[in-house]
Each structure stands twice: as C-alpha cells, then as structure tokens.
Amino acid sequence: MIEAKGLSKRFGATRALDKISFEVRQGEVVGFLGPNGAGKSTAMRILTCFISASEGSARVHGHDVFDDPLAVRQRVGYLPQRAPLYGDMSVLDYLKFVADVRQLDKSTFKKSMKEVVEVCGLAGVLGKDIRTLSHGYRQRVGLGQALIHDPPILILDEPTSDLDPNEKAEVLRYIRQVGEKRTVVLSTHNLNEVEEACARAIIISKGRVVADGNIEDVRARGGRVRYNLMVDEQEGLTNGAPALAEVAEALAVLEGISSVKETPTDERAHAFTMLGTKSTDLRAEIYRLCVDKGWLMLELRRDVQKLEDVFKQLTRGDERSDRGRDLLAGDDELEDDEDFDDEDLDDEDLDDEEADQDDADEADDADEDDADEDDADEDDADGADADKADADKKEEE
Amino acid sequence: MTTTMSIAKREFRSYFDSPVAYVVICLGLAALGLVFFNYGGGFWQVDRASLRQMFVQLPRGLSWLVIPVVTMRLLAEEKRSGTLEMLITLPVKDHEVILGKFLGAWGLIVVLIGATAIYPVAMFGWPWDLGVLDFGPVVSGYVGLVLYSGAAVSVGLFISSLTDHQMIAFFITFLVLFMLHFLGNSITLSVLPEKAEFVLSFISFDTRLDSFNRGMINSRDVVYFMTITIGCLFGSFWALERRKWL
Ligand SMILES: Nc1ncnc2c1ncn2[C@@H]1O[C@H](COP(=O)(O)OP(=O)(O)O)[C@@H](O)[C@H]1O
Ligand SMILES: [Mg+2]
C-alpha cells in the first residue's frame, strides 16, 4: 500500500529525513511516532506529494509519488497538522468544495456525506462557519474531508494534538472505526494513543527509523526489566545491619543482573535499582539472597519497561547530540560506565532519584538553551528542542 | 478544467463571504460618481470627455486599492495559514491552483468593471439622454480595462506567491502597480533622457491604456497586457512549485 525507500529530505542544512524506509500493508493502522521535529510531517508531506524528497522514492497504492502525484492524491485522504481549513466557509460548503475538486458526482457525494456526518459527528455544525468551531470540531471536519471520497488510504498528521482528553478519545474512536477497512497512517508524539489505536508503530527520531514493528515487538526492543529493592539499613533479619557496599556487591554478582545502582531514599534503608534481562524473573533469586544474608527486605518490585521507556531510550541519544551535548556526553558516558555498566538505562529514567546527577544535567540544559536561542532562526527544531529541554527540566524538578 | 473552475468559484465566492467585495464595489462606484459630479462642469455638463476621465481614473483606482486588496491574500494567506497544504494535496495540479485563483480574483474585478457600465448607460441611454454617444471608444475602453485588469491581477498574484505575509504582498503590489502607471507620465518623462523615455512609456500602463481610450485596439497593446499576464502566471506557478524543492 505504502512503500518508502530511502527517503531523504534536506531543508538547507537541516536534514529532516535521513534515508528512511518503511512499508505499510493493506489494512494496517500504523502509528508514526517521534518527538517534535523528528520528521513525521515531512514524511507525510512527501507521501501526499506536497513536497518532493531530496533522495529516494515512495509508492502509494502502486503509484510513484513523484511521477504520478494526482493518482496518489486521489487515493489518499490527508489531514495536515492542525487541520488548516478555510475559516470563512461553512462546514457544508467546505465539504462540498472538497467533493467538487475531487469531482464526486451528486449521488456519490450525498451518500458519502451521510456516512461522514455520521462517523465524524458533524450533524450539529454543518451550517456553522469553520472559524467559529472548537479545535475538536475542526479536527473532525478535517477528518471528514479526508474521508469524503472514501479513500483506501488515510494519512493523518497529529490528529489528536491540542485536543482535550475527551475529544482525544473521541477522535481515536473515529480513527479506529474508519481504520477497520482502510489503511491508516497517523503521526503522534503521544504513546498512549499509539497503544490505543494502532497495531504497529514506526518510531522515528531525527529523520531516521529507530524501531518498526507491532507494538509488542517494539516494546520488547527495550528487552530489559528493572528491579527496585529496598533493604533495611538499621536492622537485619539475623546478623544485624548490613553495609551498603556489601549489599551492592552481593547483588551485582547475581546471575542475570546487568547493573546495580544505589538510589536515594527518605527511609532508613538502602535502595537499589537493578537492570535485568527480560527473559528471566530474578525476584526469587533476590529474595533468596536476602534471606541467606539475613537482610530485612522492605520492598521488591519488578517493572517491565513501558513503551515510553523504549521511546525515550530510542530517541534520546539523538536529542542529546541535537542539543549540543556531544562533547559533554563523552565524559559523562565514561563516568556512567564506571559505576554503571549499562548506559542504556539512562539517567533520565532514574533522575527523580538522582539528586546530584540532576544538577549537572540542569546546568547542561541551561547552557544549551542559550545555544539554541542563537540558532533558533535557522532551525525550527532547535526551538522545539528548547521547549523540550524546558519540559525535561520541569520533569526533573 | 473543472478543478480550475471549482477553485475559481470558491475564490470568487469567498470575496462575498467577507465584506471585501461589497465594500470594494460600493466604494468603487461611489468614487466614480464623485469623479463625474466634480469633473468639468458637473454632472449635467457631462460629455464624452468626462467619460474618458472614467477610463483614465478607473484603472488607477483599481491599481492603488482594489487589486492589491483582492490579490494580497490569494497565496500569501493560504501559505501562512497552511490551507495551501490542504488545497494542494487534493488531486489538483499546481497550474490549476494558480489559474483558479487568478480567475477567481479577476472575475471579481471584471464584475466591478462591468458594474461601472451603469454610468455610460445612465448618461447616454436611459434615464438621461445627454447626447449622442460614440460607442467605439467606450467599447475599446472596456476591452482595455479588462486586459489591463488581467495583467494587474496577475502581478498581484505573483507577488502574493512570493511571500507569506499578506500585508507585504499588499504594499509591494501597490508599489509595483503605482510605478507601472506613472512610468510613462509626462512629469516622470520630462526629467529623463530620451532613451529612457522610450523604454518607460513602452512599459507604462497609462500609455498603453491611452490608445484604447482613444478608440484604438492595437495588437501591440493587447500583446503587451497578455504578455504581462502570462508571464506573471508562470512566475506564480514557479513560486508555487518551489515549495517542493526548498
Ligand atoms: N519548510 C521547512 N523549512 C525548513 N525546515 C523545515 C521545514 N519543514 C520542516 N523543517 C525541519 O525539518 C525537521 C522535521 O520537521 P517535521 O517533519 O515538521 O517534524 P515533526 O512533524 O516530526 O514534528 C525539523 O527540524 C524542522 O525544523
Ligand atoms: Mg509535525
């Protein structure tokens, strides 16, 4: 249905897409996932022949986007980001106009109009001017115009951004509904939505595909589980209070544990976060170890990595270099490696528990924000990243 | 062609969805009325000479206000608001978008020009019969106006295709059209050497329109206006295509 081969797109010095390839088969509902500035919209614009790729080729429904844009557009319903519609037209007039340009005849239009109004819930607003509608309704009208010619393929760019949770749920419901008999590609930076509406996710970051597969596979790409353990530091089961180093050492040599890190806690306890492989469950081993050593276990928890973690893991490295952390990251990572032999579980995952690391991080962020401001003019993405950095900072606090 | 007409129709109608069209038409006719009442000996003294004034003043009024207002948003506003992406990703060819927009805007101007015909009709036909009208110069004058307005609208469209800001499009269109009118003006020409005079009067709207107003339809003048129109339409097309490669 959709087939992209080595698509690249440069905007001046910015590389918006870097040789991405993917394939979407008939009937699939695919989520295009990536942080802001990853290149999702750019990819969709190429697929809908709004812009041309600098390199590579793509076919939609068997038609080349470069050679036969009209055939592609006839078979695609497209909703651009933020649903830009003619505000001075009424909803009905707008849908009529789209049908007119698509050269639907009267009876077809009537029939599909009925369906669109029903599926998108537009009955109450048909006579209203589009500029008076709420964003949620605008999004629905946008979805409606994309469906009016009953296309086999739908491409939706962030159909749920800027919506309130209720509207979001509703739009996702429409998408699921129309996706039953269509091929749908939708982009988002929200993971829950992908989990809710899509069977498959393509994660892109800095213009490259970093993961592609059904949601379960993508989640498994993280391939790790995290154990949180808390051991009383004042009292033991049999032998009295254990020393921090002693516990850490004993945990580190357990089979299947790839890293042990002490985490700060308010309680009078030693707390640790460990990483293990997903295939084995080490809780029994850890419990046994505690009993053997006579430590008083207060808490043991095993977290399977969430899609969110995978997303962060897959997209973070790029962002780091994007924010100019390359040089800093060099030393950082060395340090990390010493006491923490797996940098994959990065500090952002743990940072709420890591006070000193935070300070360093924040200082970095601040520096880079300045840098970002300097070249904000040249590169929109930097602006987005600055925002992101701010958001990160807030999170860290 | 049907696609082009759909776009043109939407564009044309959108002027009537906002006050733009009504304001433009009413103001235009009122201003023209003022010209008649105040020129020469007033309305009842009106003669062929005052009708000629209409053909001289009307294009200036159009160029300085109406056409920049009508064309400024054609592409600039669509680019800014993102509706262009919606329009272009419908199954339309780029040249159909340009042509549709051009026809929509030109259509409005032609309607306005047509509306001014009530003056000659009222004065020389019914209800007043102020004399015998020589129809030749009137008809050729209107032909000139229609040709001129096509050229002026296409200039505005081209400028609108080069920017994302409709106010910038407005000012530049205004400036360019202003210059095109006055290049051949006797005041400008008197201070310039003879060579320049020749070139400037060659590209001046006013000099070109003058022969239409005197009842002559020169093929050279027709070709002149059509060349500008087609050239600017190609320019707009090129500017629209450019988005793909930027
Ligand atoms: N028209 C453009 N001119 C210059 N740079 C652009 C343009 N469109 C997108 N970009 C850049 O391309 C990158 C990807 O943008 P985009 O595809 O919009 O990302 P996303 O939709 O994933 O947020 C960003 O760095 C952005 O700044
Ligand atoms: Mg986007």
Topology:
The complex is a heterodimer of chains A (397) and B (246).
Chain A: E1 2-11, E2 14-24, E3 29-33, H1 40-47, E4 55-60, E5 63-64, H2 69-75, E6 76-79, H3 91-101, H4 106-120, H5 135-147, E7 153-157, H6 165-178, E8 183-188, H7 191-197, E9 200-205, E10 208-214, H8 215-222, E11 224-236, H9 244-252, E12 257-263, E13 269-277, H10 283-293, E14 295-304, H11 307-322, H12 326-339, H13 347-350, H14 355-375, H15 380-396
Parallel strand pairs in A: 3-8, 3-9, 6-7, 7-8
Antiparallel strand pairs in A: 1-2, 1-4, 4-5, 9-10, 11-13, 11-14, 12-13
Chain B: H1 2-17, H2 20-38, H3 48-81, H4 83-88, H5 94-115, H6 118-124, H7 135-162, H8 166-182, H9 186-190, H10 194-203, H11 205-213, H12 219-245
The complex binds adenosine-5'-diphosphate and magnesium ion.
The site of adenosine-5'-diphosphate has 14 residues of chain A, from strand 2, helix 1 and helix 15.
What's the overall average pLDDT of chain B, rounded?
A: 87
Architecture per CATH nomenclature, i.e. the level-2 architecture of the domain at 2-75 and 151-219 in chain A: 3-Layer(aba) Sandwich
What value does the Rg of chain A take, in angstroms? 25 Å
Calculate the terminal CA-CA distance of chain B, rounded to whole Å: 28 Å
- For this structure, the quaternary state is heterodimer
- Please state roughly what percent of the residues of chain B sit in beta strands, choosing from under 5%, 5-15%, 15-25%, 25-35%, 35-45% or over 45%: under 5%
Mean pLDDT of chain A: 79
What compounds sit in this structure? adenosine-5'-diphosphate, magnesium ion
Strand tally of chain A: 14
Element-by-element helix/strand order of chain A = EEEHEEHEHHHEHEHEEHEHEEHEHHHHH
Category by helix and strand content of chain B: mainly alpha
Proportion in helices of chain B: over 70%
What structural class should be given to the helix and strand makeup of chain A? Answer: alpha/beta
CATH topology of the domain at 2-75 and 151-219 in chain A: Rossmann fold
Q: Terminal Cα separation of chain A, in Å? A: 45 Å
The helix fraction of chain A, in percent, is 40-55%
Most extensive contact: A-B, 28 and 24 residues
Question: What is the total domain count of chain B?
Answer: 1
Low-confidence stretches of chain A: 325-397
